[in-house]
Amino acid sequence: MAAPNKGRRPAAGGQSKPGRALALILIAMVALVGGMFISHHTTPRLGIDLAGGTSITLKAKAEPGQESAINKNNMNTAVSIMNRRVNGLGVTEAEVQTQGSDNIIVNIPKGTNSEQARQQVGQTAKLYFRPVLTAQPTAAVPNPSASPSASTSGKPTPSGTPSASGKGTPSAGKPSGTPQGRALSDALKASPTPGASKPGSPAPNPSAPAGDATAAQLQAKFAALDCSTKEARSKAGEGAKSSEPTVACDKDGAEKFILGPAEVDGTDVSKAQAVINQQNGQWIVQMDFTGGGSKKFAAITGKLSQQQYPNNRFAIALDNQVVSAPTVSSTLSGSAEISGNFNQSSAQDLANVLSYGALPLSFQEQSVTTVTAALGADQLHAGLIAGAIGLALVIIYLVAYYRGLALIAILSLVVSAILTYAIMTLLGPGIGFALNLPAVCGAIVAIGITADSFIVYFERIRDEIREGRTLRPAVERAWPRARRTILVSDFVSFLAAAVLFIVTVGKVQGFAFTLGLTTLLDVVVVFLFTKPVMTLLARKKFFASGHPWSGLDPKRLGAKPPLRRTRRTTSAPVDNPKEA
User: Fold this and answer.
1) Which of 2, 481, 522, 547 is the most buried (most CB within 10 A)?
2) Residue 176's Cα: distance from chain center in Å?
3) Percent of the chain with pLDDT over 90
4) Which residues contact 421 (CB under 8 A, 6 or more apart)?
5) How many angstroms separate the CA atoms of 81 and 304, rounded?
6) 503-542 burial by CB neighbour count: b if 16+ within 10 A, else e?
7) Max mean pLDDT range (39-43, 83-87, 210-214)
């Protein structure tokens, strides 16, 4: 009779093999912690609100009738360009990512170039080379030569004329207003670029009656053009297509222009760099063209060199503002130089945005948040204190109420903390995850969620003991019921975190992400650590005997010992007749 009873015991208890589960989670912990040291990232990447820096929220803005331009591809392209611009300034660990369908969040850590990065991230940087049809100094600055000039590689021209080599200045005897002896409509027809700037687009008929109407509209816009403020200059020519004439101001408001359709654009520039002009010691921006761009540039400079002043000028327009407008006296190709009132910072800024291309969309700055390093450290310190207080309260409650079972809960919390820390650390370089203050709050909330799973399981075990079962079968019979409750509870928490992550933007997503991550880890820890450890400890005399400090004392739980003895005495009379 002993052998059958011995063989039936594992089946009756339904006991699992806890060693396998514990080995699996131990391997996972060693792999994650080892990955931290191998990757040389032993601390989580901190967000702007904890490390200090600037956070910028940009909202995409579509031109009228082009709302479909705000799409996933263009947003991802904009993120890539912004990221290269910021990194090109030497700002390390900057973070640029989309939020929602039309927002981009730029997090710039504290550093010497953070202000330059802020100015560049949202700059569209659409560069066009346009012929000048009309130029006129503004009332504030009577001399147009005061504006920045540009130069291109080629033969220098006599110093009495503004030239592409940058060695001349405008002749005092040449008017800078409407071209001499020619109406604006004639200038439009004589423009070297009467058609669209992009290959394959149709060229308008210069002799069409609409030319006079177009000239009149441009002349009216030109007369009303205000270049006195930075905001007004940025709106000049807003919405104009590259294939159409437009009006523009120079970047200092010293001169205003009517410009023809673009002949060369920023995509034709292969490289731009800020250098010092060895002749005069001034900062300039050198541009190298692509093969196709070089041909386009040679064509436009060849046509402009045959025109009279000011129609022999071409304007280098960046985001609808004229950076410079030199004259051309010969055909040029290969490279160009932009010179003028540049210092090292402004020259490098311009070269940087030209090198990495124009953004496919325009962006409006929605909000800017700046956090000092000291404030970030204070917030991190406060968050850690809050987490420690929350953890201490949970431990005190577990020890006071569950006594010996608190040891299992504390060990499970330690395992969960190690996994959470290691994963957050590795996610920094992996996907750019940054631990911000809301994420810390999510981790603190997760302490309660994890402890709740232990409590559910412990209470199920106690219920089984109250029904008169011993500990080992109680542990196994309680698990299926507790498992269902834990999975349902964690599923609801994870669903809430997922919805919050999808519908929110900015820092709130940090809270949702951390909450979702810790909820998943709660399931892993309960299944692979808490349950196996409970199975092993149930075999120890301290817990199996119901020691008062084990947390499983039948007397404290309300299970009356006489109930068990009554069950054993009912079987005794069955053996009495045999003894008799």
Assistant:
1) 522
2) 47
3) 13
4) 44
5) 33
6) ebebbbbbbbbbbbbbbebbbebbbbbbbbbbbebbeeee
7) 39-43
Please check the confidence at residue 495 and state whether its pLDDT lies above 80. Answer: yes
Residue by residue, DSSP assigns 121-143 as: HT----EEEEEEEEEEE-SS-S-
Angstrom distance (rounded) from CA 196 to CA 262 = 7
Output phi, psi for 191, to 5 deg.
-60, 140
- Which H or E element spans position 13? helix 2-13
CA 242/CA 264 separation, integer angstroms: 10
| 520: CB partners within 8 A, 6+ apart | 490, 494
Mean pLDDT, range 191-206, rounded to an integer? 40
pLDDT of amino acid 522: 92
CB atoms within 10 A of CB 341: 14
| pLDDT, the chain, mean | 75
What is d(CA 326, CA 122) in angstroms, rounded to the nearest whole number? 28
- The answer to whether residues 88 and 352 touch, using CB atoms and an 8 Å cutoff, is yes
Burial of 182 (0-12, 13-18, 19+ CB in 10 A): middle
pTM value?
A: 0.55
Confidence at residue 529, expressed as pLDDT on a 0 to 100 scale: 93
- C-alpha angle with apex 492: 489 to 497, nearest 5 degrees? 125
pLDDT given for residue 189 in this prediction: 53
Residues 342-357: tens digit of each pLDDT: 788 778 777 777 776 6
DSSP percent split of the chain into helix, strand, coil, nearest 5: 50, 15, 35
Distance CA 148, CA 274 (A): 15
Distance CA(20)–CA(8), nearest Å, equals 22
Distance CA 342, CA 6 (A): 91
Terminal Cα distance for the chain, rounded = 21
Q: How far apart are CA 209 and CA 116, in angstroms?
A: 48
Checking if the pLDDT of 116 tops 80, the result is no
Give residue-wise pLDDT tens across range 323-380.
878 778 788 777 777 776 778 877 877 777 777 666 777 788 888 877 776 776 787 7
Which DSSP string corresponds to 147-159?
A: S--EEESS----T
Of the pLDDT bands very low, low, confident and very high (cuts 50, 70, 90), residue 199 is very low
- Which two structure tokens, joined as six digits, stand for 219? 């002349």
Q: Which residues of 396-417 are buried (b: 16+ CB within 10 A; e: fewer)?
A: eebbeebbbbbbbbbebbebbb
Contact 347, 339 (CB under 8 A): no
* Cα→Cα distances 233→229, 352, 385, Å: 6, 22, 51
What is the C-alpha separation between 295 and 263, in angstroms, rounded? 11
